[in-house]
């Protein structure tokens, strides 16, 4: 009886499993073919592969040779300044910077903020000599300064042409990083050209700057930015200081610096012609938003009191389109046009007021601040 029950139970289990398999096969097909698209055969190409590119690679510049050429022309600068504490006690403190020897007689270019308010300046040369330096001239507007040491037959830097730089060009930055007195070098590329930034500490706007991805550390200010020919194309002066930003710095283009340096050596100061307007660029979107009659030009945002612009009758919302017969398409165009003149020059300005074109004349003055 027990044996017959076992056989019956086994038969029922097998029968139930068979029903399950058959049921599953009826409800769920064993395989589903992927969907077919009607244009698959038209778009596919069984023999496709990536196009063959050039097999050669561009060799890296020979940095050691450039460094060996430039390094003897770069100096470490130590500055002593005095300050008064909360209790009226006077103290002295030291800071560091860099400089570039520009002739064999000891003229050295650096930043104005490096030597500003210095009571003493010492320079360490590549050969280890430490010499006192005196200030020849400073210019806060462009953050440039020239100092001099009593020495002769010095190695000096080759001056290049920053207008020939291109975005992506290799550059080297040399300087007295962290004020340790040893000249170090970092490499990078030109990230952007003709950059303008406003310096919050002074309120000045610097133009024609070179944006690089080489880090500019404390002590590097005043050092050279050089191209792959070992020529100075810029003077390092600032880095971007933000938590989210790394490896971005600015250099003053050598083309912008050269005339200032010459004036500092020749007369101890640099003149900056001044029109006396605050401006912005007019483009198609600005013109459309304000219903301007022109799509380019320099929009006058503010006219400073007692300025040449005010004396000539310029007003807010005027759009300057020509300066001394030079077309003005952007605010930068007007800045460059003014800076190409001298203090005391008489200039001709063509501008739009509403839909009317007007012409005025004025005389440029020295920048008052």
What does this structure look like?
This protein is of the alpha+beta class and 369 residues long. The chain has three domains: 63-82 and 93-149, Thrombin, subunit H; 158-267, Thrombin, subunit H; 273-366, PDZ domain (Pdz3 Domain, Roll). Helix content is 21%, strand content 37%. The chain has helices at residues 2-27, 40-43, 63-70, 112-115, 254-267, 284-290, 308-312, 331-339, and strands at 74-84, 90-101, 107-110, 120-124, 130-139, 144-149, 158-159, 170-175, 184-198, 205-212, 224-226, 231-239, 249-253, 273-274, 277-282, 297-303, 319-323, 326-327, 346-353, 356-363, 365-366. A six-stranded antiparallel beta barrel has the order 1-2-3-6-5-4. The chain has a six-stranded antiparallel barrel with strand order 8-9-10-13-12-11. The longest helix has 26 residues, at 2-27. It is flat and about 65 Å long.
């Amino acid at each position: 009886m027990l044996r017959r029950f076992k056989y019956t139970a086994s038969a029922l289990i097998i029968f139930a499993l068979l029903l399950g398999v058959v049921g599953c096969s009826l409800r769920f097909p064993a395989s589903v073919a992927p969907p077919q698209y009607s244009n698959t055969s038209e778009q596919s190409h069984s023999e496709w592969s990536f196009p063959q590119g050039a097999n050669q690679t561009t060799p890296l510049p020979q940095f050691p040779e450039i460094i060996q050429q430039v390094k003897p022309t770069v100096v470490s600068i130590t500055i002593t300044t005095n300050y008064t504490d909360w209790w009226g006690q006077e103290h002295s403190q030291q800071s560091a910077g860099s400089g570039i020897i520009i002739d064999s007689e000891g003229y050295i270019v650096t930043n104005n903020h490096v030597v500003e308010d210095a009571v003493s300046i010492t320079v360490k040369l590549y050969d280890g000599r430490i010499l006192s330096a005196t200030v020849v001239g400073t210019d806060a507007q462009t953050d440039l300064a020239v100092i001099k040491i009593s020495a002769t037959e010095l190695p000096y830097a080759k001056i290049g042409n920053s207008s020939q730089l291109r975005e992506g060009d290799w550059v080297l930055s040399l300087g007295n990083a962290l004020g340790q007195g040893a000249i170090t070098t970092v490499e990078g590329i030109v990230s952007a050209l003709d950059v303008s930034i406003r310096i919050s500490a002074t309120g000045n706007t610097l133009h024609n700057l070179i944006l690089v991805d080489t880090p500019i550390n404390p002590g590097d200010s005043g050092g050279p930015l050089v191209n792959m020919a070992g020529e100075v194309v810029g003077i390092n002066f600032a880095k971007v200081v933000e938590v989210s930003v790394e490896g971005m710095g600015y250099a003053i283009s050598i083309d912008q610096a050269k005339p200032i340096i010459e004036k500092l050596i020749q007369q101890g100061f640099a003149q900056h012609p001044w029109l006396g307007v605050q401006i912005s660029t007019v483009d198609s979107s600005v013109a459309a938003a304000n219903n301007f009659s022109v799509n380019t030009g320099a929009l006058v945002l503010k006219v400073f009191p007692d300025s040449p612009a005010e004396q000539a009758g310029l007003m807010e919302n005027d759009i300057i389109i020509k300066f001394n017969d030079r077309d003005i398409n952007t605010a930068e165009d007007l800045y460059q046009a003014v800076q190409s003149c001298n203090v005391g020059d008489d200039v001709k300005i063509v501008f739009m007021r509403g839909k009317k074109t007007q012409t005025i004349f004025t005389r440029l003055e020295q920048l008052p601040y």
